[in-house]
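Posting for a labmate who doesn't have an account.
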Amino acid sequence: MRMTGLGMPRPSLRTAGLALAAVIVAGYFLCGAGKALTAQPQLPEVDMDGMEAPVAVEAAPIPPVSHFAAIRDRNLFRAAMPEASGATAIEELPVVQLGIKLLGTIYCDAAPLSRAIILEGDKQRLVKVGDSLAGHSIAEIQRRALVLSKGGEKKVLLIELESDDQAEDMWGGA
């Protein structure tokens, strides 16, 4: 092996030829891949004369949530089921009308993270446990309901429903 002026060994002609061949082959494949990636796909010709128009299919009505109770009760994936908490049974509390509309709740097992969206007059407001509404203190935020407390007496403010069907869906059936 000969030495170059920089003190590095000079490759043989065979090694240089193999390296050049490898570069040419790699360039050939990369060029082909580039052409394949940028080429427009050729779709087959379709004879439209013998085809029929698609038939419109009427969508089936969506069943209420209560229809799927058997699936929920089987707990197929062994999901952690919420334990009975110290939450108040809202069915036992009197319903209050304060001129405030409950639009929705964001329920979380960790009470400080729960929120409710209310409509007071024409203004929406986001409230949490401990906030005040028309002289009542928010004691709990539950799914679809606020438990309000005033002078030790608890009352419930519910989401106003537009129809009986909506009530069945929200409360799991009548």
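Reply:
Got it, the structure tokens are right above this. The beta strands are 100-106, 115-120, 123-127, 132-133, 136-142, 145-150, 153-158.
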